Amino acid sequence: MEMTENQIKSIVEEVMAKMQLSGSTSGMHGVFSDMDTAIAKAKEAQKIVRVMSMDQREKIISKMREKIRENAETMA
């Protein structure tokens, strides 16, 4: 699965937007409302990541780091 830098950027921005929309909810420690959903989504994501090259993974992680730094104050 070949991903372009723009696709990676789009994915990271979408995740960041979802995190900002969900805001801070007392008692909630994550993106998903329950553990079963979180585990199922992690398994789905692993299937995608497993077929990516190390270069693709590095690009995704770099973009995530960049967006986290840009939004560090909001996320704090």
From TrEMBL:
It comes from the Bacteria. The keyword Oxidoreductase applies. Residues 33-76 form the Aldehyde dehydrogenase domain. The keyword Oxidoreductase applies. One of its GO terms (molecular function) is oxidoreductase activity. InterPro entries: Ald_DH/histidinol_DH, Ald_DH_N, Aldehyde_DH_dom. Keywords: Oxidoreductase. This is Aldehyde dehydrogenase EutE.
